[in-house]
Design a protein that fits this description.
With about 80 residues, the chain is an all-alpha fold. It contains 2 helices and no strands.
């Protein structure tokens, strides 16, 4: 009988911990401060501009290195 009570106790404690976990999650979700739509659009704009600038930078580097490689290969043929 005592062994059966221990198993029941363990099951009850497990479910109590699960319930406590979800209550804590609910409490943490209430603490979230969501950004305003204006802030989201501003941040999105900053990210897009940064991507374009970095893309152009990488494109220019790639073009420069390809031209440099072309010059080196032409010199090697002579």
């Amino acid at each position: 009988m005592a062994e059966n009570e221990k198993k029941t106790n363990a099951v009850v404690k497990f479910f109590q911990r699960v319930i406590k976990f979800f209550r804590d999650c609910k409490g943490e979700l209430k603490k979230i401060v969501w950004p305003t739509p204006k802030s989201v659009f501003k941040s999105t704009g900053v990210v897009l501009v940064t991507i374009v600038i970095l893309g152009l930078f990488v494109f220019l580097l790639d073009t420069g290195f390809m031209n440099l490689l072309g010059l080196v290969m032409d010199v090697a043929k002579v």
